[in-house]
Design brief:
The chain is α/β, with parallel strands linked by helices and 406 residues long. It is built from 14 helices and 13 strands. The strands form two sheets. The protein has a seven-stranded parallel sheet with strand order 3-2-1-4-5-6-7, sandwiched between helices. α7 crosses α12. The protein starts with 6 loop residues before the first strand and ends with a helix.
Amino acid sequence: MKSNKERLWIITELFYPEETSTSFILSKIANKLSDKYDVKVLCGYPTYDKNSRKPSFEISDTIDIKRIKSFAGSKDKIIHRMLRFMTLSIALCWSAMINIRKSDKVFIVTNPAPLLVLISLLKKIKRFELNVLVHDVFPENTIPAGIIKSKKSFFYKILKAIFDKAYGNASRLIVLGRDMKSILEEKLQFKSLQPEIVIVPNWGDTINIQALPKNTFIRNDENAAKKIVFQYAGNMGRVQGLLELLDIISKVNNDKICFDFIGDGAVKNDMIDFVRHNKMMHKVSFYPPYRRDEQQEVLGKCDVAIITLAKGMKGLGVPSKTYNILSAGKPVLFIGDEDSEISMLVREHEIGYTFVADDTLGLYNFFNSLTESDLLKLKLMGKKSREIAEQYYSEDKVLEKFYEIL
């Protein structure tokens, strides 16, 4: 039966039933918008979560999903990932060119990067409304990541010209925070006709993640119950500044605090070696990555959650895990630029502590100053974190913003 609703095309590398962050977010948005639009999805075949459990939610049966074949390869090999990004982006764009009409709306996310460029070019030809959810700002994010060494390089300048046009061709850019909005306004300031830029943050799972006492999860560990447990959970990559953090921790002399690092990444083995070499095993522990359905237990075991943003990353990304941390009722220790979205959030609502990355003395003094009596203060901060999550960052409230904007 033909629908009388306006058509909305979501074009993405990843989609339901995968539960990677991008797939999860786009699938939830698709469900919400299916009440308003005839939602059609162009996407690749599942590659990342082949051994995962059944997804935690169902996709609406009114959503039409068309999967496009492309080079699969191994996600652990950079050349294979690049080939997949290119071949899938071209295939998705070709399918979009055949199927999308001028009267349709299109919704994409900024990764993979080639797809953003190709769909923005197609928009110039087809004249449809293009909405871009900005998770990454290219090529600016390649500098702090070390992929490109200098903004003065010829290659960087070529990429910047290409991507500035791609972002500028959008009808609307949906960004994650105030810092990202400022970066894009500056990036596009020379364009005569600029896209609308609106802020819609990520959301936290305030339903499945509750603010429960730490003792709920560490009943058999009296030692941890009396200590202040700091927790970093997520990617242990080169741009997170974790080795530098460990260097500070190695100098701290405070038996009332300990640190848990949960996840995987490029520097995890280096971190483990550093801890062993400096005989820090009594205060630093490592754990493997966790599934989405384990977040309640993982987040529940700490008193303070650590969020880091590498130097130079202000406005180029907003750590999405922040909002589940708030849902769990945990205060935040943020290490990064003081004008970044998360730093402003923490300071405005008084839900934790913020330090710039190179304030090693400030962090050292902070860690050394903590005592068991600070646990009550942290609990009060955590209570406020949960209130903020419910008031501003619940799934229903954020999805309603997408519904109103699109």
